[in-house]
Each structure stands twice: as C-alpha cells, then as structure tokens.
Amino acid sequence: MLTVGERVWYSYGVSTSRRREVQPNNAIQWRMMCDAYELGASVYDFRGITDTLDKGNHLLGLLGLKAGTGGQAVEYLGEWDYPLNKVVHKALDLYMSRR
C-alpha cells in the first residue's frame, strides 16, 4: 500500500485458485483498509478495473471484489512511460511485442 497525505493506494497484488474458499486476499485487503483508516486516510484507492462486463474477461472477479466494498469507479487520464534509457526501453518494447 502506498500512502500520500490522506490518500492510500492498493499498489499491486496477486492470487491463485489454491484455497480460494478461505479468501485470504479479502483478509489482506481488510487489514490494509483498517491500517489506512488508522492513518486518517480519506480515500482507499483499489486502482484499475476492467473496462468491460464481458463474462469471459478474466478480470471480472476482481471488479466484483472492488465494487463489493461500496466504492465507486473513477476514470483518470491514464499512465505513461517516460524512458530514462531509450535503448533499454526500445529493447523492452521489442521483447514485450514477442511475448
């Protein structure tokens, strides 16, 4: 979790299907929300959600978790890369295009 002033961002997470029924990610999110509250945060930002409600989208379950907390979807400008090393950035782009 990242904290700046009264805003807290859930930065990044991962899950697996193993033991999903015990919902460990929900417990971790709850702990982070409690920590954010104790810090005096006025916003807990889950960050990105899927832009579709297509049942085949693998991120739809994540949207359900995030929306289930009573939050709201807010659209921002987006994210951009600022390459500090143009050669390395070009090599990474080439590698990612071949994945």
Structure characterization notes:
By secondary structure, the protein is an alpha+beta fold. It has one domain. Helix content is 36%, strand content 9%. It has three helices and three strands, in the order E-E-H-E-H-H. A three-stranded mixed sheet has the order 1-2-3, with no helix packed on it. Helix 1 links the parallel strand 2 and strand 3. The longest helix has 15 residues.
Features:
single chain; 99 residues; alpha+beta; 3-stranded mixed sheet; 9% strand
What's the overall geometry?
A: globular
Query: Which bin fits the share of residues in helices?
Result: 25-40%
% residues in beta strands? 5-15%
Based on secondary structure, the structural category is: alpha+beta
Oligomer kind: single chain
Q: Secondary-structure element order, as H and E?
A: EEHEHH
How far is the first residue's CA from the last residue's CA? Answer: 29 Å
* Count of domains: 1
Q: Let me know the average pLDDT.
A: 85
Can you describe this structure in just a few lines?
The protein is of the alpha+beta class and 99 residues long.
Q: What is the strand and helix layout of this fold?
A:
Blueprint (H helix, E strand, L loop, with lengths): L1 E3 L2 E3 L14 H15 L4 E3 L14 H8 L18 H13 L1
